[in-house]
């Protein structure tokens, strides 16, 4: 679980590629670790998951129309910018905790 958290946090710090999949992966890890991610270093990932649960994940995108993808990509870009500072902080916290274990 910690290797997965390190990989996902690193990916989010390096790129917005597969953003939702990486966020949801960290949300799941936080839920597994604490039973609920709220009020933990994984909190922001639960918030983003909740805010974006209507957006298609990578494996669904191939089934979506270009018009729909343009609309959701705009919404996703706004979400990424809105939460960027919190995500960076959470990823750095996760990496610092896990690399010291």
Walk me through the structure.
By secondary structure, the protein is mostly helical. The chain has one domain (1-100). The model has no long low-confidence stretch (mean pLDDT 95). Helix 3 packs antiparallel against helix 5 (66-99). The protein is elongated and about 45 Å long. The chain has five helices and no strands. The two termini are 13 Å apart. This is DUF2489 domain-containing protein.
How would you summarize what this structure contains?
The chain has 101 residues and is mainly alpha-helical.
Describe the global form. elongated
Number of helices: 5
> Fraction of residues in helices?
over 70%
What is the total number of structural domains? Answer: 1
Strand content: under 5%
Total strand segments: 0
Q: Residue ranges: pLDDT <50 for 5 or more in a row?
A: none
Distance between termini?
13 Å
Structural Rg = 14 Å
Mean pLDDT: 95
Order of helices and strands: HHHHH
Derived structural class:
mainly alpha
Give the biggest sheet. Answer: none
């Amino acid at each position: 679980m910690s290797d997965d958290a390190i990989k996902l946090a690193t990916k989010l710090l390096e790129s917005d590629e597969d953003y939702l999949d990486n966020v949801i992966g960290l949300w799941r890890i936080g839920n597994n670790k604490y039973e609920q991610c709220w009020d933990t270093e994984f909190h922001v990932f639960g918030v983003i998951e909740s805010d974006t649960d209507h957006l298609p994940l990578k494996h669904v995108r191939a089934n979506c129309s270009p018009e729909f993808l343009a609309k959701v990509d705009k919404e996703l870009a706004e979400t990424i910018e809105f939460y960027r500072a919190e995500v960076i902080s959470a990823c750095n916290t996760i990496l610092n905790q896990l690399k010291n274990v």
